[in-house]
TrEMBL record:
Domain NADP-dependent oxidoreductase: 16-316
Keyword Oxidoreductase listed: yes
Name of the featured protein: Oxidoreductase
Parts of the chain that traverse the membrane: none
Family annotation (Pfam families): Aldo_ket_red
Keyword tags: Oxidoreductase
Region (Disordered): 317-337
One Gene Ontology CC term in the entry: cytoplasm
Length: 337
């Protein structure tokens, strides 16, 4: 697995990591043993960058990842995120529902409590990269990052990150404490970071960690209709997977499929290789809970697309090509703040 430096003064980290949101039934029911096997295989192939969050399954994803890393903690670079507070008794079955009772909290008082809870669920002493999952409008970023910096001084966290923030928020945060990484959705379907955020990251020496590099699966070419989605699949609530948008979006994958045929790779590998081609400061954390996809994702790190192939992909899927927003209205209000 190729390594890239995480930020100006950060460690060498696997260019392709493993996102673990699917461990929490997001794309249909998850089997913990299958998820653990995926983590073990990722370690075996050098895909040692693992990303989770307290929100996923009301902490369930963190627990499963922690269980999988027992005895192999030193091999892993562990990233998690804080934001969600759940009522007593919340579990993996209720966390996504409209009546889950969860709410966001990025107050400086909550930050150390959230960190301690994540450490306990993960069963580790130190989090390698700790993200603020979203910027809340009523909490100054300076206050939140100031509290996060206290975790670094206490030895509970090694590096700080932000997720889905505006350029101004990143600059203000970085002035308080160095930010190692910004996590944001980035793919051929979602090119929003190219509208100033990626440039700001490079100016400040901050890595960009791309989640959903497959456009939540559509760029793999395996989703042609809503019938391909499980009954409780999270994507059923995504505007890009709606009845009116999915047909248009599925057709956009044709050029990815064509390039894949020409280079003897899968559409998924091509989509991931495109993300990695954006620069040595860009990382990808495709999510899966299946060993075969872990192996495919790891192989994609070795695929180099020609300038001609990259230009064809850029031309066929320019910013704004996908129909529909990437989140429902409420979710869109939580990004770029």
């Amino acid at each position: 697995m190729k390594l890239r430096q995480l930020g100006t003064n950060g460690p060498q980290v696997a260019a392709v990591g493993l996102g673990t949101m699917s461990f929490a039934d997001v794309y249909g029911p998850a089997d913990d043993n299958e998820s653990i096997a995926a983590v073990h295989r990722a370690l075996d192939v050098g895909m040692t960058h693992f990303d989770t969050a307290d929100m996923y399954g009301a902490g369930h994803s963190e627990r499963v990842l922690g269980q999988a890393l027992k005895g192999r903690r030193d091999e892993a670079f562990v990233a998690t995120k804080f934001l969600a507070r759940f009522p007593e008794g919340a579990d993996r079955a209720s966390w996504l529902g409209p009546n889950s009772g969860q709410y966001g909290d990025t107050s400086p008082e909550w930050v150390p409590q959230a960190c301690d809870a994540s450490l306990a669920r993960l069963g580790i002493d130190t989090i390698d990269l700790y993200y603020m999952h979203r910027k809340l409008p009523d909490v100054p970023i300076e206050d939140t990052v100031g509290a996060m910096a206290g975790l670094v001084r206490a030895g509970k966290v090694r590096h700080l990150g932000l997720s889905e923030v505006a350029v101004d928020t990143l600059r203000r945060a970085h002035a308080v404490h160095p930010i190692a990484a910004v996590q944001v959705e980035y793919s051929l379907f979602t090119r929003d970071p190219e509208n100033g955020l990626l440039d700001a990251c490079r100016e400040l020496g901050v890595a960009l960690v791309a989640y959903s590099p497959y456009g939540r699966g559509i760029l793999t070419g395996t989703v042609q209709s809503r019938a391909d989605l499980a009954e409780r699949d999270y994507r059923r609530f995504s505007p890009r997977y709606s009845e009116e948008n999915l047909d248009h979006n599925a057709k956009l994958v044709d050029v990815v499929r064509t390039v894949a045929d020409e280079v003897g790779a899968s559409p998924a590998k091509v989509a991931l290789a495109w993300v990695l081609s954006r620069g040595e400061d860009v990382f990808a954390i495709p999510g899966t809970r299946r060993v075969k996809y872990v192996e495919e994702n790891a192989d994609a790190a070795d695929l180099t697309l020609s300038p001609e192939a990259l230009a064809r992909l850029d031309d066929a899927l320019p910013p704004g090509a996908a129909a529909g927003t990437r989140y429902p209205e409420q979710g869109m209000r939580s990004v770029n703040n």
